[in-house]
Amino acid sequence: MSIDIVQGVQTEPESDEIQEARRQVEICNACRYCEGYCSVFPAITRQRLFAEGDMTQLANLCHNCRGCYYACQYTEPHEFALNLPKALAEVRSDSWERFAWPGGLARRFQESGVALAGALVAGLAVVFALIQTMRPDSGAGFYAYLSHGLMVSLFAPAFLLPLVAVGVSLRRYWRHVGGAPVKLAHLTAAVRDASRLGNLSGGQGQGCNFEEGTRYTNRRRWLHQAVLYGFLLCFASTSSATLMHYLLGWEAPYGVFTPPKLLGVPGGLLLMVGTAGMAWLKTRAAPELGAPRVWGGEMAFVLLLFLVAASGLVLYAATGTAAVPTLLALHLGAVLAFFLLTPYSKMVHGFYRLAALVRDAQQKDSRQAG
């Protein structure tokens, strides 16, 4: 590690991951063969020197499509031994862990994600099963097993508090990368880019090289879009049910042709297809082109999201049967575990990627204005 001296003040030593990523980025900046591949390379060419915050920004701008690795003439056995996808993946995962609040939880999940997620889901499912022994006096559908008031008192803080934790970590990230006050134009550009997942198209619209090496494929992009839009549909389903309950006095259960079901069922199906496909792609992709240390945590996040969607759909299909109490406990345990782990699982990458795209839009504007 090196120790920086700024105006006579000793700062925190840089990590080996930052130094290695900087070495590789400086070589890429001299070569510029991959300039059209994704947003990372145009961002590299806008600078000559790269501070630690610059490296963190580049790492979170990278979507690990791996096209640059297969196009590079300086990978091993060349003496430069470039592996930019791996170098940026390690900086990226380290940034999520360093900025997470409270500290330490993200690293623990990334290294032991499957075990932690499984234990948390199982424990919470048991708790919900025990709570069902004290059934409310009245209620229909799922509320015959758990009262509406109890579910709100449990899930409202479990949803809001993780968002606070994510907000704290994003604030730390934004200060670290030198982010400026956000303008609507920058946010709009970032949301547009994120909705299209343009950085998974290989820069030329051919797709990325994540699981097929030198062959291009759009599978990863399509599966990401299935997860993204499936999640948004499920969120819209829950939001519509909330509005119907509190504004219209229309209480659950809801019929097939109501907004909660018309949005939630397709959303759940998209989530199942997307997460199952992403888990399959991860087993086919070369682990040495990512951050092997966090592979288990990334897989745990994908499997947990799959369980949330699958258990919800199975629960809906089992309505009115004796299986409802068990399935309800499992589903609620999975959902609550997902909420609680959001700030420390790979779910947080969506927030960081959006922030990185906003910062990139700011830097483009500054370059044009200059």
TrEMBL record:
Q: Where does the chain cross the membrane?
A: 113-131, 143-166, 226-250, 262-281, 301-318, 324-344
Keyword flag Transmembrane? yes
Coiled-coil positions are none
Checking InterPro entries in the record gives: Citrate_utilization_prot_B, NarG-like_sf
UniProt organism field: Fodinicurvata halophila
Mind listing the UniProt keywords for this protein, alphabetically? Answer: Membrane, Transmembrane, Transmembrane helix
Q: What is this protein called?
A: Tricarballylate utilization 4Fe-4S protein TcuB
